[in-house]
Design a protein that fits this description.
Helix content: under 10%
Largest sheet: 6 strands, antiparallel, barrel
Strand order of the largest sheet: 9-10-14-13-11-16
Number of helices: 0
Mean pLDDT: 86
Structural class: mainly beta
Low-confidence stretches: none
Radius of gyration: 26 Å
Shape: flat
Distance between the termini: 90 Å
Number of strands: 21
């Protein structure tokens, strides 16, 4: 029996009712099952994009998009009187960075066996337990290749050394470049975690206008790629224009 090549999959996945309809033109361009692929209009298919774990959001927090331009977009996490800013696969750091002088892996030999990491900085880090730091510019093999990103501070060893909240179950590898450390941006917000679901907003350029039934209007403003402010909106003459006293 001759077999005809199927050179196009543009019809995508079809229902079982079509399985026997060889008389339909779309039968020759259809699929019975298409999972984890995206059908292209040109006939081919490509792998479905995956997701990457970036961070844990606080329970009941509110996620609001903030799109400044085609090249600069942010995700704002409104938590309990705080706003965390995300972009480019992680928390946005402050513009101030501290060079890393050493990355020290320590073996925790009590089962389960794992490594934990302490980071030495070239100057006092000023961190506290629970602070969020952003590591960047680290290169190397093994574990060193995945250290760039957002981490929580597990403990403070000294004024220039701290431990991140992470465990590693493989031999670390070797480091090429130590990189630097910055503190993740966290902006004070008036909204409690119980109220963030009732937020409404609209955006104009680099300003996000926020309103809530129980709070005055606020402006979330982007000053630069690493600088943001949250201020109460100043209304002139209230929400109404002055009365026109003549004709």
């Amino acid at each position: 029996m001759a077999k005809l090549p199927q050179v196009s999959l543009s019809s995508g996945e079809v229902s079982p009712a079509i399985y026997g309809r060889v008389d339909l033109a779309r039968y020759m361009t259809a699929l019975r099952t298409c999972r984890n692929f995206i059908v292209r209009p040109t006939g081919g298919v490509s792998n479905r994009p995956g997701t990457e774990f970036i961070d844990e959001f606080a329970q009941n927090s509110r996620i609001i998009p903030f799109i400044f331009s085609v090249e600069q977009a942010y995700v704002l996490e409104f938590g309990d009187q705080t706003i965390n800013v995300y972009a480019n696969g992680g928390r946005v750091p402050t513009s101030t960075s501290i060079n890393i002088s050493a990355l020290n892996f320590h073996l925790h030999s009590t089962p389960p066996v794992y490594y934990y990491l302490t980071i030495e900085t070239a100057s006092p880090h000023g961190l506290g337990v629970g602070d969020t730091v952003v590591l960047s510019g680290i290169t190397g093999s093994g574990v060193y290749a995945v250290l760039n990103g957002t981490w929580s501070v597990y403990s403070i060893v000294s004024a220039t050394e701290f431990r991140i909240d992470a465990t590693f179950y493989e031999i670390p590898g070797s480091v090429t470049t130590l990189g630097s450390m910055s503190v993740a941006i966290e902006i004070a917000s008036p909204y409690s975690i119980a109220d963030v679901d009732d937020l409404s907003w609209t955006q104009s350029a680099d300003v996000l206008f926020l309103v809530h039934p129980n709070y005055p209007p606020y402006e979330f403003r982007r000053l630069s790629a690493t600088s943001f402010t949250m201020t109460e909106m100043t209304l002139e003459d209230g929400p109404f224009m002055e009365i026109n006293s003549d004709e």
